[in-house]
Sequence to fold (442 residues):
Amino acid sequence: MILQSSQEETNNEPAENTPKASRSRLWWLIVPLLAVLAGGGYLYWGAKTVPAAKQEGAKSASLPVPVVAQAAGKADVGVYITGLGNVTPLNTVTVKSRIDGQIMEIRFREGQTVNRGDLLAVIDPRPYQVQLTQAEGQMARDQELLRNARLDLQRYKLLWQQDSIPKQQLDTQEALVRQYEGTVKVDKGAIDSAKLQLTYSRITAPISGRVGLRQVDAGNIIHASDTTGLVVITQLQPITVVFPVPEDNLPRVLGKMKSGARLGVDAFDREQKQKLATGQLQTIDNQIDSATGTVKFKAVFPNKDNGLFPNQFVNARLLVETRHDSVVVPASAIQRGSQGTFVYLVKADKTVAMRPVVIGVTQGDDIAITSGLDAGEMVVVDGAERLRDGSKVELREAGHQRGQSGPKGTAASGSPKGQGEQQGAVKGAGQKPGGVQQGTKP
Fold:
């Protein structure tokens, strides 16, 4: 019985393990089959779509790229030396009282423009009028004493000739006359001093210019020793700008000045967009700052419209040379790469070629070309980022190129200039591509 039971158990174990083994073998067959199906599908669809993509790419590559082109022009280009300058008045005066006294009147308004000699304030003149009267009275008394002494001297001379008086008495009288003459001179000086002090009671403008804020009000007592003064007057016309220039530029500027040339200087605002005034170089400092390697230039400006204000920071631009009939193109035409600066030249067959150029000074929105390009040659000024050497192009106007889309829904490349700015697709040779403004050294 025991042997039979063992055989039954042995026969039952394979029966229980058979379904699990079957499922395991089934999964080992399904997984490789799925992998094979996935790989085949990928290869099938890839082989089907890649030719279509290549065909589409080839089709897009053959389409012309919309661009804006412009002919290189000629213009007179200025070579400038620039520097950050500080507006400095020629004269600044703190108006002070020369005498002590009470301010009776203020005759100016804050911020008013005054001329030299204009009355600014009045100090109580009565104490100085009294001093003048006293000095005049003292002089009148001493003049009478002098007159009487001279009469006595004439009498003593007659008596001495008659041997009626000793010589000592005559000498004493002559000394007395000289003493009174000296006293009268002192009195005259006292009168002049009193008159001068009286004129100081009327404070006038020592220079022409603009008055600042009032420091003392009417009714206050002021003294000649006061440090604040009554008001500050600053001369605005003319006015100067002092700006540093690298020492390397000094020989060229000195050469121009020695030849008698008058070098013009323009003053621009901080953003270098608005020209504030135009003047001339007046002088150069007598030494170079060893710490910065610069030398100070001073330019004078008429400043008739008061466009320059004391202590204002401006960008000064000194014109040292004018290069006539220079080839100029818009700055947007200049491209930069590993081979250096270049432009895309539009050829007659509506393809472009990379043309290496050497750039010169910047002239507003234009750049001068020193070599590599001739006036009249067409260059791409908008849409160059989609080009390469030999690309086909389609010339568009600036507004059309910037606002519309390219073929197949591809957006046309935008211009580096602001939107809404109109610019023709082509300008004729010899025509200036932009207004001649200021330039800077390359």
Notes: Residues 65-78+325-440 form a domain with the conserved putative lor/sdh protein from methanococcus maripaludis s2 fold fold (CATH 2.40.420.20). Helices lie at 2-62, 126-161, 167-199, 250-258, 398-403. The radius of gyration is 49 Å. The longest strand covers residues 313-330.
